[in-house]
Amino acid sequence: MAYITIGIFLLACGLMFWFFPDTSILEYGYAEMDGFFSLVPYLFMFLLSAITMRSFAEERKEGTYVLLATRPLTDWQIILAKYLACIVLMLFSLLPTLVYYYSIAQLGLPKNNIDTGAVIGSYIGLFLLGSTFAAIGIFASSLTNNQIIAFAVSLFLCFFSYSGFDSISRIGAFQSVEMTLVDLGISVHYQSISRGVLDTRDAIYFITFVGLFLGLTKLTVGGRKW
């Protein structure tokens, strides 16, 4: 399952970044990866939702979670083990995309005419973004024993967390709290890190977001176990 999911993710990245005219770096003509880093968050929503949807849902459906819950393990150990496994899969899916950086550096005129600092910042932002989406996916999987429902719930929560607050802030009734709503969304913090600005406030935001959803997962799993 993981190989298929990662393969589809990399295929989609390659097609969008190199072949589709509207998003191709070859049509864009500038040695930078901004287009790639603006597309990947939406692909990450599908990737992380697909990776995490089986974490708890499938175990409860097959009855194997009973065996896991009776082991001398705490709920936090089980949750963190599943969460870290998803993070490792996410890293394996990102590693092949480093080829894009090398290719653009070689195609640039002159060679290596690419902002390496911005690329590093963007990859750090992608890691934090993926970690957040993984926490959301783990939580969604803990709510149900149907992995398709878990996928759909995770996809919705990821999309709303990334773009929903920005959209709500544009509604006239919420203009008085527009900036507060924007700051609650993931998008503004991800874009800040992608510019190469490593602000501790953005890092704290992502860590808090991950902690919130893992904590909600603990409540869900602990309640069902009880």
Give the CA-CA distance, first to last residue: 31 Å
Low-pLDDT residue intervals, each spanning 5 or more residues: none
Overall mean pLDDT stands at 83
Q: Determine the number of helices (DSSP H or I, runs of at least 4 residues).
A: 12
The main sheet comes to: none
Report helical residue fraction: over 70%
Let me know the number of strands: 0
Q: SS-based structural class? A: mainly alpha
Anisotropy-based shape: globular
Question: What's the Cα radius of gyration?
Answer: 19 Å
How many domain regions? Answer: 1
* Percentage of β-strand residues: under 5%
Q: H/E order of the elements?
A: HHHHHHHHHHHH
Describe this structure as you would to a colleague.
The chain has 226 residues and is mostly helical. The chain has one domain. The mean pLDDT is 83.
Brief description of this entry?
By secondary structure, the protein is mostly helical. It contains twelve helices and no strands. Helix 3 runs antiparallel to helix 6, helix 3 packs parallel to helix 8 and helix 6 packs across helix 12.
